[in-house]
Amino acid sequence: MNKITEKQLLTDKIVEAIQDTKGEDIMIFDLSTIENSVAQTFIICTGNSNTQVSAISGNIQKKVRNDLHDRPWHVEGTENSLWVLLDYVSVVVHVFQRETRAYYDIEELWGDAKITKIENQL
Fold first, then answer.
1. The pLDDT of residue 5 is above 70
2. pTM > 0.70: yes or no
3. Of the chain's two ends, which shows fewer C-beta atoms within 10 Å, N or C?
4. Which UniProt keywords are present, listed alphabetically (predicted)?
5. Is the dihedral of CA 114, 78, 9, 32 positive or negative?
6. Distance between CA 119 and CA 86 in Å, rounded?
7. 3-state DSSP: the chain helix, strand, coil percent, rounded to 5?
8. Given pLDDT bands bounded at 50, 70 and 90, which one contains residue 36?
């Protein structure tokens, strides 16, 4: 399997896991054309509480591990679940609580990326 297909499978699986746990405001940032970016893809989403942020990040890890046999290279933020970062090297996931996401506003930092917004499922 080539890298593009692998990255797309990983991205799709992460989005599916976020949606399963009712994550909101899902955005996919394609950083592949941006020089010196830390990853090829960022996925950002919002949870409404520490519990939900924790559930979203846990579900992402479980689904990716079970379905794609991959684990994050690095995980940060699980102590307080205000902002959990899951680093799968080519894809980095940011799971925020709403206020924390608004405060850091990392969407602005990567404003020149190609951005795909995923509609919330009802």
1. yes
2. yes
3. C
4. Cytoplasm, Repressor, Translation regulation
5. positive
6. 22
7. 40, 30, 35
8. confident
